[in-house]
Each structure stands twice: as C-alpha cells, then as structure tokens.
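Input record, target 12 of the design panel.
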C-alpha cells in the first residue's frame, strides 16, 4: 500500500514538473481551427516533396501551402483518418473508402475513389488509419486488414490484422494485434521478425518507427526498441513513468540522436538517445492541445496533428523561448545571470527565474529598467530608486527617485554614477555614501564618458548634454543644439573605439572634439534606423526600428538577420535588449518573456537555410481557370480581375515578392496567398515569384508567362478589316486626289486658255487701241493738214479778193476762186474724214442722231470736230467759214441740243458720245 502511494506521489511530482513549470521551448507556431476554417480534430499529417502540408481532418483533406489553408471534403462528408503524399498524389483513407487526390493542370483538386476495387472484400465498418509506400506499392490498413494498391488493382495482404506498420531495413514491418512483429516477404508472405520478441508478447502496439539500425515500438504506456534481434524496454525510468501517465500514441525519428514521442495526455516528448535525456512540450509550453494524433517531420520542422488544431515546432531552432502566459511577468527590459541565478527586470518588478519557475523578489515590485553587474555586485535601476541584489534580497541604495542606469566611473576610484529621474548621483561604494550632483536637475537616461573630465548625458525628451567637471567639482552643463532637423527625442549615446557616437531620429553622428560639434557618422550610414543595442569585440547587434527585427554583424562582411516573425513579433519596441552570456549564448528580452539565442547554431542554420520554392496553385479570371504549365491567353473581356493563388511552404523564407513585367510593371509582396491583378492592358506578361530569406542573396523563384488577348476591336480579323479599310480609304483618297488633280489640271488648262485668250484679247485690244491711237493721230494729222490747207487756201482766196480788180481776166479769177472754194469744201475729203472718224469714234454719229435726230449734216460735221476737241479757230478752215461763223453755228447747235449756257459743248460731246 505504501509503495503504491509513493508511486502516485512520484507521478504527481512528474506531472506537476512537466505540466506547470515552463522551461525554454523552441518556436511553436499554432494554427487554430478558426484560422484554417475546418474541424478541430486532425488525425494524421504529412508533407510532400515541396513542403506542402496535408492533414486528415474531421471535415476532409486539409491543405496548407505555407500562406493559406484549403479544405477539400469527401462527397460522403466522411472523416479522413490518414493521409500520404506520394508521386504527385495524395492518398487518403476514411470510413470504407480509400482513394487519392490530384491537383489538375488548372489547379483544381480532384478526388479519385478506389473503393470500387475493394467490392470483393468483406469490409465491415473498416476505417483506414495508416498509409505507407513501399517498393512502388501503396499499403493501407484498417484494424481489420491490410491492403495493397499496385498497378491499378487492390489486393489484401493475407493473415495480417495490424495496429501499426513501417519500413525497417528494406522490409515492411507490421504489428499484428498482441502478436509481436512480422514482416512481408518478397512474395507477399508474412513471417515473424527474427529474434527475441518476448518483451512485447501480449502488448497492443500503437506505433513503430525505424531509427537507423533500431526499431522503436510504442505501446500505450511504454517505449521499447528492437536492436540486434532483441526487443527491450527503454531503460530511462523517468521517461517510462512519464509515459504511463501520458499515454504514448506515436513515434517519429527527427535526427540520428533524437526521436519524438506523441502522447494523448501530455503533448510531445523530445528524447535524446545519446544523452538519455528528454524534454516535454505540452499545452503549458505553447501547444494548442495535449492530444497528439499524428506527426510529420521535414526540413527541421515537426508538424503535429492535434485533437484541437495543427502545430508546427522548430525543434532544432537556434532560438528558445520562455513565455509567461499568466501575464504576471509583463515586458522584460533586462536579464542577468548572477551567482548561478537568473534575474529578470520587467515592468512589474525583478524576478528570480529558476527551473522554469518565476519568483518575484520581495519588495522588488514595480517597473525596473536595468540590471547591471559591477565588480561582483548586481544593481537594479528601479522605478523607486536604485537597489542592489544580494542573496535574493532587494537592498536599497537610494530611494528618493527612480533611476534609469548605472555606470562605473573608473577602475581606480571604484565609484559609480547613477542616472535617475532628476539628474545624476555619485555613489562611493567603499564608504556607501551618495552625493547628488545639484548642478544637474533634469532626468538623465544614460551617460557616456569621453574622458575623466567630460560626461555626455542623454535626456529622455530634450536631447544631449555635455557635462564638464574636475573630479565632479566645478560642474558645467551645456546643452547641445538639436542634431538634424527634428527635436532630439530619446537620443542614444555610445562610446565606440573611444569616440562619442550619438543615435538621433534614426541617424548616426560622431563627436569631433577639435570642432566641438557632432557630424554625420559616415561609417554607420548603412545602419540608418538601426539602433545599437549590444556591442562586443567583434559582434554588434542592431535593432531595426521599422521592421522590428535584429541585425547581428561584425561591421565587415558577416550579417545575420533575425526578422520580427522569427522573434514572434515580441520585441519590446524602442527598448530592445540583447544580453551576452558568453561568446555563443545571448538573450533577447521580449514583451512577455525572453529568448535564448545560440549564435554559433544560428550562423550554421543561416548557412544551411532551406528556402521553399513558391508555386502557383491557381490562375483564374471571373469565369474560368487556366493551366499554369502552359502560357495561358486570357480573353480581354475577362481580364479586368485576374486571381493567382500561390503557395510558399513553410521554410526560412520570410517574404514572397512578386514582379510583373510586360505591357505594365507591378511589384510588391504577397501575404495571404492571393494576388489580384486588375485592369491590365492587353499584351504579354512575365510574372516572377521570389521567396526571400533573411539575407539579400537568399532567394528561390518561380515564373509564369501569360498573355491578355487584344480586345475584339484589336483582334487579327478586325486588324485585317482595319487594314482593308485603311487601304480602301487610301485608294479612295488617291482616286479623289487624282480626280481633284485632273479637275485642277483642267481648271489650270481652262485658266491658261482663258488667260491666253485674255492675253490675246489684251494684245488685240492693245493693237486695236494702238491702231485707234494711230488712226486718231492720223485723223488729227489729216484734219490739221486739211485745216492748214483750207486755211492757206482761204488766205489765198482772201488775198485774191483784195486784188480782184487788178486782175484783167475776171473770168479767170472767178474760175480760180471757184476751185479754191471747191478745194475748201471738198466732199471727198469730208467722206475720208468721216470714214476715219467713224473708225476712231464708232457709232458717234449714230448715237448722236439717235438722241438728236434734227441735226443736219453740217451740225454733225461741227459735232465731229468738237468731239476731236478742236477749237473754233481750227474748225473754221475745215468748214470753210469764219471763226465767227463757227461760233454762231455752235450757238445754234447748243439750241438744238437744248443745252444750258453753262454746259461746255465740247466736253458734253466728248463725255457722252
């Protein structure tokens, strides 16, 4: 009785130890049912060669491509119990149903049932719980039989009713119910495994796992191993005691020295065979559930199918986390290992951390900024003052005001300088005397010593101060003008290689003592917006202010990035802290705990990074899917919204970048697994998907070429129509131009002919005018000659009349006088004048008679002379009358023509006739 009570107490202690204390745990990623949108229970889990995760869920096949989850239910809505990806197919087993899924060329998942191949077998409520591939065949089992699928047919493996199966030493091993272990021969015969199997007689085996030259065997309460043809119980008594209470369910090998045990009641057990030690990770450690129904291991990651959700554990990550799920600890600001104890400074106080348990130091509650070990003494900068920690006691040094930091002044004096909420204080450790430096009456967050006489101080809100002193006497305080264009809020000060360096508003500055001013620090330009949080001899750690990650570098070639995702987005922003324990082990403070980093292991892991290759699952528009293996052509009317569903299996890749080039250029990052391309122009496109790791050189890519067809109005047939129309239009324009040219040519010819005719007419007119002028001149000359002649004749006649009495022969004189009169009044001359006159002044007489019909020939004669603008003196000889006679005749003519006295007769005739 006492022995049984003792065993119960031991079990309670073990359960309490492994369930409620929280050790450092590897990164655990939880995928809850609300995230993958399916049932809670997952019975099995497996990964394909790409890294895509497949889980057998209560509602169907659950697929995780690293970015998004998809659920594919069976038509019967049956629970899927087992899953195995193999050669591009995903085999699943459920209630009286076995088959496989294949992703089609257009991305759709299609299920092919093989149930019709088992119609000849007497299936009695069989559910297929396990599937494995062996020598080009697929074996799957229920609790009633084992079946083999090969070459398109299914056969039953006779005489085997198995509870587990696995491959071991190139043989397929089965665990018949309470009958030890058997293996399958080359002729599908069953033989008992060689050796001593007494240890598992009458044991109901739940799982078997090959591990090198050993085979591990799991029963409900114990772990056995088969080696050198003998089965033995694992000798670790603590492990066996733990398994009795945890109910062992599955085994998986994860390295040459480790196996993982999945339990029903207590999560997983990581068992190191070489060290014979184990660790337990359960709900307290961060698992969603303690019931492990399936496990898979690939690419250094352990995937768990749980009774509630799916979890991923990075067992061999260089980071280990401590998380305070109770919220008691709060955000951790500092961590120190001191006298074999671990102390945490958080916003709720100072804690002792031991064996996974937190204990608040008495009187240490409240915000604590910093822990600093100086000369074997651990100091705490607390919201209520400065304290030292000794043997777990919190001993006050100064409690007048809260303090930010503490610095040792020099090895010679041994004094320390305390930066606190109201200034600086000098503490003499030997005398335990505290002196407040009264000249400094503003908060100081941290100080940096330039030399023995100059201190640089960082005000948390107002910038940087220079403090000069002589052994802390004659203190002078000088505020430095703001560096950069903004106010210097929360500046940081450093002493790098005996130089004072400032980090302000994301920029780095270096103090030049000769110019007494800060200048931009060119050597740290590449670390803009990166605050230095730790420096060693050859290791510098920067915190990325924008992305929330860490950068570890030697300021030369080596750069190691820890992004915010790897740290679970848990850094205490603006108060990041990186604490060195030794050359390899570091601690990072988090907002609900801390992380331990093995730097050597981190460097190796970054070198051995596996970056998964992204792939395209689906490419579709609003109406149809397209095959991504070819270069799809999308109709323009369907191209307004193109959808790509992509996958990037879980790996060290941190981002998925896309770059689309072609008629348009787009780039960015895909976070949800879906990329929408909207309103692309028609043409050819090239899409590049790049999975990016932490280093700029780390990448894995995949590509897709596709085209968007031209709209109907730009199709080939329409282009031919357009070409025909253009040619027709061109021909029509050419024809019209020809017609226009011909018409223009005819117009030019007509115009030329008209101009030629006009030119001829003008020439003819000019000729006629010249002839008229000539005739007018001839007429004038003839008239003037006639006038002269008549004038001479009339003068001769006058002379003869004067001396007519002197002539003896009067008859002869009379005859001469008659001839003279006849010569003066020669009708032939008048006719000649009239003819010439009519040639020059056509229709003159006709028009004149038409208007004045009563005019006599003598009147017409006078009018013609007047038309020629002859004077009365010139007219008189022509008419054979005197000038007086001409005047009288003109007067009479005026009367006949009824002209006013003021009208000039000559001008009237010239103007009107």
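The sequence produced for target 12 reads:
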């Amino acid at each position: 009785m006492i022995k049984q009570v003792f065993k119960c107490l031991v079990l309670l202690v073990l359960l309490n130890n492994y369930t409620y204390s929280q050790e450092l745990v590897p990164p655990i990623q939880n995928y809850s049912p609300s995230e993958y949108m399916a049932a809670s229970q997952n019975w099995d889990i497996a990964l394909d060669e790409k890294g895509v995760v497949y889980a057998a869920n209560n509602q169907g096949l659950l697929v995780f491509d690293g970015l998004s989850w998809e659920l594919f239910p069976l038509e019967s809505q049956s629970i899927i119990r087992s899953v195995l990806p193999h050669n591009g197919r995903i085999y699943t087993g459920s209630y009286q149903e076995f088959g496989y899924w294949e992703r089609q060329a257009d991305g759709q998942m299609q299920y092919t049932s093989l149930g019709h191949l088992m119609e000849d077998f007497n299936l009695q409520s069989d559910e297929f719980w396990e599937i494995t591939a062996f020598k080009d065949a697929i074996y799957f089992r229920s609790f009633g039989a084992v079946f083999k699928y090969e070459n398109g047919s299914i056969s039953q493996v006779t005489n085997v009713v198995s509870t587990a199966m696995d491959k071991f030493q190139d043989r397929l091993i089965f665990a018949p119910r309470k009958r030890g272990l058997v293996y399958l021969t080359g002729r599908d015969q069953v033989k008992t495994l060689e050796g001593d199997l007494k240890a598992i007689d009458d044991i109901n085996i739940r799982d078997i796992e090959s591990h090198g030259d050993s085979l591990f065997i799991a029963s409900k309460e114990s772990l056995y191993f088969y080696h050198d043809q003998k089965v033995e119980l694992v000798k670790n008594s603590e492990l066996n005691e733990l398994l009795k209470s945890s109910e062992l369910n599955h085994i998986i090998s994860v390295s040459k020295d480790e196996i993982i045990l999945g339990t029903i009641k207590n999560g997983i057990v990581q068992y190191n065979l070489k060290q014979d030690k184990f660790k337990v990770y359960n709900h307290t450690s961060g698992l969603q559930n303690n019931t492990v129904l399936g496990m898979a291991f690939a690419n250094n990651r352990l995937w768990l199918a749980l009774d509630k959700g799916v979890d991923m554990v990075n067992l061999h990550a260089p980071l280990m986390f401590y998380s305070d799920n109770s919220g008691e600890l709060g955000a951790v600001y500092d961590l120190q290992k001191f006298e074999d104890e671990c102390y945490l400074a958080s916003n709720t106080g100072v804690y002792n951390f031991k064996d996974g348990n937190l204990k608040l130091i008495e009187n240490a509650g409240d915000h604590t900024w910093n822990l600093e070990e100086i000369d074997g003494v651990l100091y705490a900068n607390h919201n209520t003052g400065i304290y030292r920690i000794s043997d777990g006691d919190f001993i006050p040094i100064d409690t007048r005001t809260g303090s930010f930091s503490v610095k040792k002044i020099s090895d010679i004096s041994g004094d320390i300088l305390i930066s606190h909420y109201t200034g600086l204080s000098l503490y003499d450790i030997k005398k335990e005397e505290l002196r407040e430096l009264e000249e400094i009456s503003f908060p100081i967050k941290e100080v940096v010593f330039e030399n023995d006489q100059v201190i640089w101080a960082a005000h948390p809100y107002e910038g940087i101060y220079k403090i000069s002193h002589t052994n802390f006497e004659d203190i002078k305080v000088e505020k430095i003008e703001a560096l950069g264009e903004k106010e210097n809020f929360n500046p940081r000060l450093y002493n790098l290689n005996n130089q004072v360096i400032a980090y302000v508003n994301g920029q780095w500055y270096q103090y030049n003592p000769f110019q007494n001013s800060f200048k931009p620090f060119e050597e740290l330009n590449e670390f803009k917006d990166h605050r230095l949080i730790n420096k060693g001899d050859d290791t510098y750690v920067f915190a990325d202010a924008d992305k929330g990650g860490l950068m570890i570098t030697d300021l030369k070639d080596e750069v190691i990035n820890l992004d915010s995702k790897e740290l679970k987005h848990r850094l205490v922003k603006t108060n990041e802290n990186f604490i060195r324990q030794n050359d390899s082990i570091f601690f990072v403070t988090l907002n609900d705990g801390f992380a331990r980093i093995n730097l050597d292991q981190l460097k190796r892991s970054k070198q051995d990074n596996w970056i998964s290759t992204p792939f395209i699952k689906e490419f579709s528009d609003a109406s149809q899917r397209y095959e991504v293996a070819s270069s799809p052509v999308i109709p323009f009317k369907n191209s307004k919204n193109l959808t790509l569903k992509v996958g990037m299996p879980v790996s060290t890749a941190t981002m998925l970048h896309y770059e689309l080039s072609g008629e348009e250029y787009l780039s960015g990052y895909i976070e949800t697994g879906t990329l929408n391309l909207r309103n692309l122009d028609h043409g050819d496109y090239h899409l590049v998907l790049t999975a990016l790791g932490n280093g700029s050189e780390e990448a894995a890519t995949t590509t897709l070429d596709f085209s968007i067809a031209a709209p109907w109005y730009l199709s080939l047939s329409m282009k031919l129509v357009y070409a025909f129309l253009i040619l027709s239009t061109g021909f029509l324009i050419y024809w019209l131009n020809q017609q226009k040219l011909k018409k223009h040519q005819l117009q030019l010819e007509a115009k030329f002919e008209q101009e030629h005719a006009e030119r001829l007419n003008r020439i003819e007119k000019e000729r006629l005018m010249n002839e008229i002028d000539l005739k007018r001149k001839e007429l004038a000359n003839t008239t003037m000659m006639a006038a002269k002649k008549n004038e001479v004749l009339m003068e001769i006649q006058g002379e003869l009349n004067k001396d007519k009495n002197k002539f003896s022969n009067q008859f002869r004189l009379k005859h001469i006088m008659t001839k003279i009169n006849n010569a003066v009044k020669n009708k032939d001359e008048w006719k000649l004048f009239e003819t010439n006159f009519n040639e020059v002044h056509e229709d003159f007489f006709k028009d004149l008679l038409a208007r004045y019909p009563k005019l006599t020939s003598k009147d017409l004669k006078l009018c013609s002379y007047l038309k020629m603008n002859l004077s009365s003196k010139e007219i008189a000889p022509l008419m054979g009358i005197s000038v007086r006679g001409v005047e009288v005749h003109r007067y009479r003519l005026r009367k006949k023509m009824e002209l006013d006295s003021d009208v000039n007769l000559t001008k009237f005739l010239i103007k009107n006739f």
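Residues 499 and 514 are 12 Å apart (CA to CA).
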